[in-house]
Amino acid sequence: MATLGIPANTIAVLQKYNFNFQKKFGQNFLIDTYVLENIIEESQISSDDCVLEIGPGIGTMTQYLCENARQVIAVEIDKTLIPILQDTLSEYDNVKVINEDILKVNINQICEEYNQGKPIKVVANLPYYITTPIIMGLFESHVPLESITIMVQKEVADRMQCGPGSKDYGALSLAVQYYAKPEIVQQVPPNCFMPRPNVGSAVIRLTRYSEPPVEVTDEAFMFRVIRASFNQRRKTLVNGLMSGSLGVTKEDIQEAIAEMELSPTIRGEALTLEQFAQLSNILLKCRS
User: Fold this and answer.
1) What domains are there in the chain, each with its CATH number?
2) Are 228 and 240 in contact (CB under 8 A)?
3) Helix/strand/coil (H, E, C) string of 54-84?
4) Which of 83, 113, 194, 226 is the most exposed place for a label (fewest CB within 10 A)?
């Protein structure tokens, strides 16, 4: 089977199957072998690894994954792509294609069945409209994960990696940084895709922490505190938290902020992950 990273080969497959791009699935196929090779390198895949690929499309990156990993599980939501994948991956006996919505797949079961429950690596060229739910779903369900190496919209990659005080900093930054170490490993311009997206992309590698970098009594409550803090960015932290239905009084919040020696008019975007952990631990004790 010809390498699909070469544009002419991608076009040939699309024409052979009379394939129409589905806007609702956010389909943009990679057509740059350099980018594909770099993703494989940055995801640090070895011949011992079991890799979960989300949204294989016509199998462009899947071919590269099959060449480098022990086992590839490719989850594709678009049923019209399944016969194409059977064709483009016919040479490989180490790939399993599942026609399903990744948000409904039991990834723990996949880890058990194909990797004896050991951590897997996730590699994906993600549809941009659903990036955040997929990433948060992977982390929050506590599936055994070693790393996630994904192509996302450039601004989303920036958001995952940035720190307090920047305009991109928010709930996604903190959630990702609680679970993993984020590193942008490549910028990818629109001309590397078919069809061309309207925005630049980036490859980001999220290396899962074995233990979170902060100590928090109640993880779910901390994320509620974080979300409330960013719901209306222009509000002070006190007012943001008051609108978050956290079961604490305004006085509790003011006292917690004073205990942390922070300004009473501080905004959520100024707090570090460590400070959010500390704040949520204090507020948890105040809940009636």
Assistant:
1) 7-208 (3.40.50.150), 219-286 (1.10.8.100)
2) yes
3) ECCCCCHHHHHHHHHCCEEEEEECCHHHHHH
4) 83
